[in-house]
């Protein structure tokens, strides 16, 4: 922990860095999501589940949906990116993943400022979010 | 009076953020979505009927319209979109609660991601305050999501209904303090150097802030995280009172930090739902677009709307949706 310093009106360097990465990730994620959704809804890329059949699935619980649609959970969507519905997961994953990069990026700045406690907290958050993203924390009904 | 003040504060922060991104967003969203819906071959082919008697695009289109209205109401009522989304969509749409929760988390996450960078740069959202709180809330949101996905749907519906009705009571009774009196920072917040300075734009006053009751506040975020993950609600409704009333952060700092916090808490839970398969793009994208467009319109309507009336209306809608969730869970 660094010595006590008076609080500043301006955001700290690590806060600004975090904000910049978050902003870029958010714009890229939304852009990719909207473009891929356009490809899907326009019929430019054929979906795995035909559009006129999608309403047969969304009232099922997730286990029945996966079973009837023969879809695997977790990161299996990476192997189905040739389908219009599954390319949308790229944008969703970018939106859900940007925070991990934000945290990882501020660790060097925190260490440089001798802010060891916050550096440890940031590393812990990266581990927690990565564990959630990895799919190892599987659950079922 | 207090609720009117909080709405103004909330709106002030949102308006600043919206001004930065507004034009770009509006152009991207309107053009992409109107093109998508109007030009899609399947949109023109009304004969493509699904088993429930509607063409496939019927429910996504209704979802877009309803989330657009929801986006307006959320801004005018001073609540997050996520808290309206899950009870209303799960209560009145044919979508299963599993997909509604997954989508609800992504709706709340997107709103938080859009607002987060601006709030951090303006130093209204405090990273030092958010980091310890987020670590606890996001860990518990993962556990909450796992519990939520493991429990039977009717148990979740009943719990959701009770939670929503509890939120209505909280909205009716909770007071807010613009700058709470914090005589002395507690030991933990002093050690973590959780404090800051911001300038009140309306008066130009420089406000030094610090917090107290940090251990109690952190403990409360265990419950908040669990509920956010379990119900996919977002958690602004609980974050703000915890940061403002319990921990003593100024209202603007609380609202802004709460909004930013959702980008971390909801990320962790969203991954659990996504990895479980609870994401259907045809539900997610119309919901995101609807809420975002509604928020832009809501910010503009804020100048002429009567916030107290809107807030009562939002509480009424939430109470109705909460009762519906409860009755659905009980099988009535």
Main attributes of the structure:
heterodimer; A: 141 residues; mainly alpha; 4 helices; B: 332 residues; 2 strands
Main sheet attributes: strand count, strand direction, barrel closure of chain A: none
How many whole angstroms does the radius of gyration of chain B measure?
A: 20 Å
The percent range for helix content of chain A is 55-70%
Strand order of the largest sheet of chain B: 1-2
What integer value in Å does the Rg of chain A equal? 20 Å
> Could you tell me how far the N terminus lies from the C terminus of chain A, measured between alpha carbons in angstroms?
45 Å
Q: Which residue ranges of chain A are poorly predicted, with pLDDT under 50 across at least 5 consecutive positions?
A: none
Average pLDDT score of chain A: 91
Instruction: Note the overall shape of chain B.
Output: globular
Task: Provide structural commentary.
The complex is a heterodimer of chains A (141) and B (332). Chain A has helices at residues 13-41, 62-69, 84-112, 116-134. Chain A has 141 residues and is an all-alpha fold. Chain B is mainly α and 332 residues long. Chain B has one domain. Chain B is built from 13 helices and two strands, in the order H-H-H-H-H-H-H-H-E-E-H-H-H-H-H. Chain B has helices spanning 2-39, 41-44, 58-77, 81-92, 97-121, 127-150, 153-173, 187-191, 214-231, 236-246, 251-276, 281-301, 307-330; strands at residues 195-199, 206-210. Chain B has a two-stranded antiparallel sheet. In chain B, helix 6 (127-150) crosses helix 9, helix 9 packs parallel to helix 11 and helix 10 (236-246) packs antiparallel against helix 11 (251-276). The longest helix of chain B has 38 residues, at 2-39. Residues 1-5 and 20-51 of chain B have low confidence and may be disordered. The chains are: A mainly alpha (141), B mainly alpha (332). Chains A and B meet through helix 1, helix 2, helix 3 and helix 4 of A and helix 1, helix 5, helix 6, strand 1 and helix 11 of B.
């Amino acid at each position: 922990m660094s010595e006590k310093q008076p609080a500043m009106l301006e955001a700290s360097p690590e806060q600004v860095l975090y904000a910049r990465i978050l902003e870029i990730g958010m714009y890229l994620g939304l852009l990719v999501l909207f473009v891929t959704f356009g490809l899907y809804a326009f019929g430019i890329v054929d979906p795995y589940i035909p559009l006129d059949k999608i309403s047969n699935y969304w009232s099922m619980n997730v286990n029945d949906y996966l079973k009837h649609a023969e879809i695997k959970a977790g990161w299996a969507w990476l192997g189905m990116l040739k389908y219009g519905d599954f390319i949308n997961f790229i944008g969703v994953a970018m939106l859900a993943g940007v925070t991990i990069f934000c945290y990882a990026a501020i660790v060097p700045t925190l260490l440089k400022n001798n802010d060891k406690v916050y550096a440890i907290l940031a590393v812990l958050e990266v581990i927690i979010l990565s564990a959630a993203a990895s799919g190892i924390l599987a659950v079922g009904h | 009076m207090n609720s009117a003040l909080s709405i103004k504060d909330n709106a002030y922060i949102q308006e600043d953020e919206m001004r930065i991104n507004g034009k770009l967003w509006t152009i991207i969203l309107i053009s992409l979505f109107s093109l998508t819906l109007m030009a899609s071959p399947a949109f023109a082919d009304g004969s493509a009927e699904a088993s429930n008697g509607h063409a496939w695009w019927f429910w996504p289109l209704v979802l877009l319209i309803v989330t657009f209205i929801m986006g307006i109401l959320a801004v005018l009522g001073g609540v997050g979109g996520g808290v309206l989304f899950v009870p209303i969509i799960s209560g009145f749409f044919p979508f299963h609660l599993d997909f509604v929760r997954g989508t609800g988390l992504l709706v709340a996450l997107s709103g938080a991601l859009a607002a987060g960078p601006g709030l951090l740069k303006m130093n209204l959202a405090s990273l030092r305050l958010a980091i310890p709180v987020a670590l606890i809330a996001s860990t518990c949101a993962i556990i909450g999501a796992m519990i939520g996905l493991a429990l039977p749907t009717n148990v979740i519906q009943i719990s959701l209904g009770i939670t929503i009705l509890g939120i209505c009571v909280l909205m009716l009774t909770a007071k807010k303090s613009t700058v709470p009196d914090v005589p002395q920072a507690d030991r933990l917040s002093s050690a973590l150097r959780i404090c800051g300075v911001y300038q009140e734009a309306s008066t130009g006053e420089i406000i030094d802030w610090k917090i107290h009751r940090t251990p109690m506040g952190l403990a409360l975020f265990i419950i908040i995280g669990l509920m956010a993950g379990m119900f996919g609600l977002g958690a602004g409704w609980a974050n703000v009172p915890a940061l403002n009333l319990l921990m003593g952060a100024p209202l603007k700092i609380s609202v802004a930090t709460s909004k930013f916090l959702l980008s971390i808490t909801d990320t962790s839970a969203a991954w659990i739902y996504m990895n479980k398969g609870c994401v259907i793009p045809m539900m997610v994208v119309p919901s995101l677009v609807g809420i975002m467009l509604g928020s832009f319109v809501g910010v503009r309507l804020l100048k002429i709307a009567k916030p107290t009336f809107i807030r009562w209306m939002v509480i009424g809608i939430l109470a109705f949706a909460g009762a519906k969730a409860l009755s659905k869970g009980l099988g009535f």
